[in-house]
Design a protein that fits this description.
The complex is a heterodimer of chains A (299) and B (287).
Chain A (H helix, E strand, L loop, with lengths): L3 H34 L2 E3 L5 E5 L2 H7 L11 H33 L3 H16 L2 H12 L4 H8 L13 H25 L3 H9 L4 H29 L3 H7 L6 H11 L3 H35 L1
Helix pairs in contact in A: 3-7, 3-9, 4-7, 5-7, 5-10, 7-9, 7-10, 8-9, 9-12, 11-12
Chain B lengths: L1 H34 L16 H6 L16 H35 L5 H13 L2 H15 L5 H25 L4 H8 L4 H30 L2 H6 L7 H11 L3 H26 L5 H7 L1
Helix pairs in contact in B: 1-11, 3-6, 3-8, 3-10, 4-6, 6-8, 7-8, 8-11
The chains are: A mainly alpha (299), B mainly alpha (287).
């Protein structure tokens, strides 16, 4: 006969085991194997040799001595470009969403709900379709060039697609809803009375914004930034459609190593760098959040 | 003066927000418009409305000449759609079940590894697609698992369990636990309490989680791209391939149909979310 406590323990084990099994076997184990691969020597025809081989990282970060692999600065450049484009994407989505979130929060309820529906709709809309729209707009014979030429503003098509600008536009477009919702959540919670108090005490608009509104919406900004930064950094669909061969990001390199060059250990090393960066930013975010919560509690 | 400044500021903000919504929807609107353009030679020049691209998509007769037939094969397209639907249905079933069980475990039991489990369940959502995609590729190839519908389903489940878990957990957190306690006090077994009290209350959360899992599974491109086999292409991977090979008017038609489907699903989701559970108002009355 099982005691009540024992029965509860078995029930808990039963509830947890499916997720433990699936996430353990198909998430934790594959990532561990990927980490192992990144330290093994690439073999012939896409295989691996079971020898320790730090040069996969050396090729990217600069300590390969040339006896096995050459250090090529191009990998570092692509890595830095990925960080740069992801950071600019965060800034652009922020610039696009912040004022709009304020406006939406001040509308009467029905219009506000409709606006929120319009912003959540892209979450349900195929990502590839939304990106394809920008291919249609930006390509040499696309909507923008055709319109400008039709109006007689330009003679020859402009170089729009396959530029960093096109990649930024595409990433901003697909990640705007990710930034909008966290910002909106914190803007909606703003206490109007604080703004009135700040104005009554003689603060100008500018001062009110930077000393009252901005700090109060910072949690939303931080959450939105991290949610946009993570998928931007490792993105390869946007640069492959809108960046072409000219604007490669680290995700494109990973794809090449796995599907074309068949150097899996090197591709795994590149992916490890993406994962390390993401985990580092998450850790910083969680620590910052923890400190902010402590400050709040101490108040 | 300050009032005038305020008025101008509000107008500017309104204009900016209008531009924001135009930015969100103009590109999508263009695809829809182009999909009805009957011009077989230049997509950018309007030459009257036509359903030719839709007809060509499904292999029906149309007014296009034989050599204006662009789509590779209607069969391939429909096969990709079928694969996507099959994968999404199975994935939704598994991840909804497992995600809900896990949410129940973390919300209703106290145990030592609780914090560990919360982090473990968050990570698959935050892991960049490409990292998870190649990790699974290495794993499947190494373990001798053939790439196909099965591998795609496993891949999708690893991160969709987390989404369902999150949504159902939110629902459980907002639920009145006294009802469950009362049920147990009145002698109901754990199973009866779960079936009669807990499940009906969290049902909107479970359905919402299932809907989200279905949508994300149908739309996933990156992870599927790495772990789908030759004859198990899903719809997003198929469309990605089509775009890479060149822009064809049929893509506009497929894209428009997908947009229509997502509008329907989003409306369903909104309906589910806004429908208040019948018991929630009673809770307060008795509380």
């Amino acid at each position: 006969m099982l005691t009540a406590e024992n029965r509860a323990r078995w029930r808990l084990a039963g509830l947890l085991s499916p997720a433990t099994l699936i996430i353990g076997l198909f998430f934790v184990v594959p990532l561990a194997i990927m980490a192992l691969y990144s330290l093994l020597e690439p073999g012939m025809y896409g295989g691996v040799e079971w020898t320790f081989y730090p040069d996969n990282f050396g090729r990217i970060l600069g300590w390969a001595d040339g006896s096995n692999e050459e250090f090529d600065v191009v990998y570092l450049q692509i890595l830095l470009r990925s960080f740069k484009l992801a950071a600019i994407t965060v800034l652009l989505t922020l610039l696009v969403c912040y004022p709009a979130a304020f406006w939406v929060s001040r509308q009467p309820e029905r219009l506000r709900n409709f606006c929120l529906f319009l912003i959540t709709l892209p979450f349900f809309t195929s990502l590839i379709v939304r990106l394809y729209a920008w291919v249609l707009i930006l390509r040499p014979t696309g909507f923008l060039n055709a319109s400008l030429q039709g109006l007689g503003l330009i003679d020859a098509p402009l170089d729009l697609i396959y530029t960093e600008g096109a990649v930024l536009l595409g990433m901003t477009y697909i990640f705007v809803p990710f930034m909008f919702l966290p910002i909106y959540a914190s803007v909606e919670k703003l206490d109007r009375r604080l703004l009135e108090a700040s104005a009554d005490l003689g603060a100008g608009r500018w001062q009110s914004f930077w000393r009252v509104i901005f700090p109060l919406t910072l949690p939303g900004i931080a959450a939105g930034s991290i949610i946009v930064f993570i998928p931007s950094l490792g993105n390869f669909i946007v640069p492959s459609l809108l960046g072409g061969a000219r604007v490669l990001m680290i995700g494109n390199l990973v794809e090449q190593q796995f599907l074309a060059a068949r150097n899996w250990p090197f591709g795994a090393a590149l992916a490890m760098l993406i994962m390390a960066a993401v985990l580092l930013f998450l850790l910083l975010y969680v620590r910052w959040q923890g400190r902010a919560a402590l400050k709040e509690a101490a108040r | 003066m300050n009032r005038l400044l305020g008025l101008v500021g509000r107008r500017l903000l309104g204009g900016y927000s209008l531009a924001f919504f135009v930015f969100l929807y103009l590109p999508i609107g263009l695809i829809v418009a182009y999909s009805f353009n009957g011009n077989p030679l230049n997509m950018m020049i309007w030459s009257g409305a036509s359903l030719d691209w839709y007809r060509s998509l499904f292999g029906l007769s149309n007014s296009l000449s034989e050599n204006a037939l662009y789509v590779e094969s209607t069969g391939q397209l429909l096969a990709a759609l079928r694969t996507s639907l099959a994968v999404a249905l199975v994935t939704t079933l598994i991840s909804t079940l497992v995600g809900t069980l896990t949410a129940l475990a973390l919300a209703r039991y106290r145990f030592r590894l609780q914090g560990f489990y919360r982090v473990l369940l968050f990570l698959p959502m935050l892991m960049p697609d490409i990292v998870l995609g190649i990790a699974l590729l290495i794993f499947f190839v190494g373990a001798g698992v053939p790439l196909g519908k099965g591998s795609i389903i496993i891949g999708h489940c690893t991160f969709l369990i987390s989404y369902v878990f999150l949504i159902v957990s939110a629902r459980l957190a907002g639920m009145d636990t006294r009802l469950e306690e009362a049920s147990a006090d009145l002698g109901a077994s754990a199973w009866t309490t779960l079936r009669r009290i807990t499940l009906p209350q969290i049902l909107p959360g479970v359905l919402g989680g299932a809907l989200l899992a279905f949508i994300i599974s149908m739309d996933d491109l990156v992870i599927t791209y790495f772990i789908s086999g030759v004859d198990s292409t899903t719809l997003p991977v198929f469309i990605y391939g089509m775009i890479r090979r060149g822009i064809k008017p049929e893509i506009n038609a497929i894209a428009t149909l997908l947009l229509l489907a997502s509008l329907l699903i989003a409306s369903l989701g909104l309906y589910l979310r806004n429908r208040k559970p019948a018991t929630s108002s009673d809770d307060h009355a008795h509380g």
